[in-house]
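Board notes, transcribed. Complex of a protein with zinc ion.
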Amino acid sequence: MPIMSSDDFSIHRDGCDEVGDGMPISDLPDEVESIEDLDCPCWSEIDSLAEIS
Ligand SMILES: [Zn+2]
């Protein structure tokens, strides 16, 4: 499940070192349309949004 950082609202994978204090979210925000919209290196192993659940 993705985690939303409560500091800057960035989205991270569960267990990311950068997320700090975050909140699990069941769905990605509408603004996120492709994997490139997720800036953190923790997404580098993921090829497409379809793999995120
Ligand atoms: Zn991250």
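Residues 1-28 form one domain. Residues 12-13, 16, 18-19, 40, 42 surround zinc ion (CB under 6 Å).
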